[in-house]
Design brief:
It comes from Tessaracoccus flavus. By secondary structure, the protein is mainly beta. The protein contains 2 helices and 9 strands; from the N terminus they run αββββββαβββ.
Length: about 180
């Protein structure tokens, strides 16, 4: 009888190692927060919003790393990871305690509204008091990954904020004027 050493086992990747590589790869694909589309913009006193006015909210000219779906593969820690990332919801924190959840939203245009105070067809808000508010748009991403025979999902939230000024219009009736 003759003894032969067995062949060395190939490096075995554990689930924890595959998931760590997936998280590292996901961090490297450059997902970023949307640019905020808000009308009225409310960023200056001349362009402030008004109490009772329909504020439109949307993802402004989003790139594939800001909205939608993207697929890629990346290598992290010597492990090749396939990634499929998608976003489908933006949660807008309006700065007054209220939130609005919607998809990409519709960009406000003068041509589309005739300049009238009409509600957004899919993502809007109406302030009921004047003030300065910090509006934050949080986009939820779901990143499905597979590597070394394992798979899973990584949730990711990215956000961006802007200050919005909301004023109040008042009218005065003068008798006999």
């Amino acid at each position: 009888m003759r003894w032969l050493p067995s062949a060395p086992e190939a490096d075995v990747v554990t689930r924890a190692e595959a998931e760590a590589a997936a998280r590292q790869a996901a961090a490297s694909i450059g997902i970023e927060a949307i640019d905020l589309g808000i009308h009225p913009r409310g960023d200056t006193a001349a362009r402030m919003s008004v109490v009772g006015w329909n504020t439109w909210l949307w993802a402004e000219s989003p790139s594939s790393t800001q909205w939608g779906t993207m697929s890629t593969s990346a290598t992290a820690a010597g492990i090749t990871v396939s990634l499929n990332a998608s976003s489908s919801q933006v949660t807008w924190s309006m700065g007054d305690g209220a939130t609005v959840s919607c998809g990409q939203g519709t960009r406000w245009t003068m041509a589309g509204t005739g300049g009238r105070n009409v509600p957004s067809p899919d993502c809007g808000y109406v302030y009921d008091s004047e003030g300065r508010y910090t509006v934050t748009a949080s986009t939820d991403w779901s990143i499905d990954w597979s590597a070394a025979g394992y798979s899973g999902t990584i949730p990711l939230e990215v956000r961006r904020s802007a200050e919005v000024i909301v004023g109040e219009m008042q009218s005065v009736n003068l008798a006999g004027a």
